[in-house]
# Entry
Amino acid sequence: MSRIPDTFIPELLSRVDIVDVVTQYVPLKKQGREFSACCPFHQEKSPSFTVSPQKQFYYCFGCGASGDAIRFLMNHAKLSFVEAIETLATSAGIPVPREGGGEPTKPAISTKLYDLLGNVATLYERNLKTSERAIDYLKNRGLTGQICKRFAVGYAPAGWDVVLKQFPQDHDDLLQTGMITQKEDGKKYDRFRDRVMFPIRDKRGRVIAFGGRILDKGEPKYLNSPETVLFHKGSQLYGLYECLDLNDKPSNIIVVEGYMDVIALAQHGVSNVVATLGTALTPQHLSLLYQVVSEVIICFDGDKAGRNAALRALEHALPMVSQGRQIKFLFLPSEHDPDSLIRAEGREKFLKRLAQSEHLSSMIIEHLLSQVEISSLDGRARLAELAKPYLDKMGSDVYRSLLLDELARYTRLDTGTLRSTLHVAREAPPVSNKRPRKQTIYERAIGMLLKQPTWAHWLEAPETLLALNDLQVTLLVSLAQTLQKGGANNTGQLLAMWHDEGEAKYLAELAAIPLVLTEKEAEQEFKGLLGQICRRLKEMEMTTLQDKAKAMGIHGLTDAERQQIRDYLTYTDLK
# Structure
């Protein structure tokens, strides 16, 4: 699939006004140069949500939600990244380019296909009412008519042409959506026959595919729609629409493996459940979930296959977890799946199991310990080596530090030594909403540069500052280099170019801090901050050279190094 060029994002954002975008969903009130409202992302009585037309980004001082017009659509309208871009591009009247020679923009999917699948779902629901076998099957599974109606459960009769005959004018569209198949001789027939049918709906509630469960013995037990223009199983989750339709702000979402697991749990009052669609949990699935909740609970079988699937999900989640995001794991007894377990134990016991779900760090430690003999020196060394890929992938410094502390206990090394040995970077101190501490000079410089992108040209050869070996400095350098390359004219466009979500949020927090200075005063302060940073670099270089001179003698230095020391001493004397 061709991708959208990164250079298109700033161009798109320059064509839209974030105030117009947000106003479609949130009533904004003009306050000076900015707009405010009660935050749409958390409950509050007084407005703390601010939209800046000058910076083209939004920020909530209550919950920390922030971003540009694209991220607003992703978080509020629950659109994917590509969907948000295409929505904005449509409103701006410009095509979305594609790299690799792809079409400028993907042709819009006809609403006729969605309507057709909605009508097929209605047909299946009507057929269920007249099928005693299908009704008895669902009753035996403990399901009520009410829960089946909520999930639009239906029945595909045993005939080969029920859908074909019902929609005689739509055979091409039925082929395109996977509802019928065609043999080499051109003969067409229904894909789903004699199965209980589960419509798969997207976040907007549109039917995009189906899953079918055979009533009697036979293979395959479950049959899903194929990949189509509407349905990509690696990026869709069964039950997500139904979950959010009941509660659009659940505290967490539980991921299970089957349709019946979702419906059975909902039948017992556990409605925050989704299922993968015959595939492993993908990064796209997790990204979709983290747009909605901050905590995901993986609920799989406790056998080897279930644990391996959970480990794959864990690896996908590592770059996404942060202080505001969690992933937990619940492994079920070998004789049960979620459907049978909640029917056997009831809702309260199931919820107690959920409350005892394994945390991310515990899951990693347990997996690593199963591969080494911890009582031996070699085993402890091997444990540290095995842990490094997990530490490197983690998107959260907090989780990384907690895992290091836990590993230190097992390897019998102190955390600092372990961090140094594995070359794990130290975390940058976050900027809290309450800002109880004074900003560092690096944070102050970053915040000012975010507000005045044109000042980036004052940082000559910014890469030299990397020698300070500080994560905040690294971020400042990256910011300056990005701006010097061009392509961003305001804060919103700049933040849109930041792909690391943790860093993007950190930058947004710094950008949101008010700058109570005139433009001239701010310019003078920024230049002063750059001077302080350069002096720190110079002092560090001198310390290194002086240590070298003490160890090797003054003649152990090169002529250039000796001159560097003399210049520095002359400079400080003049100061």
Summary: DSSP finds 25 helices and 16 strands in the chain.
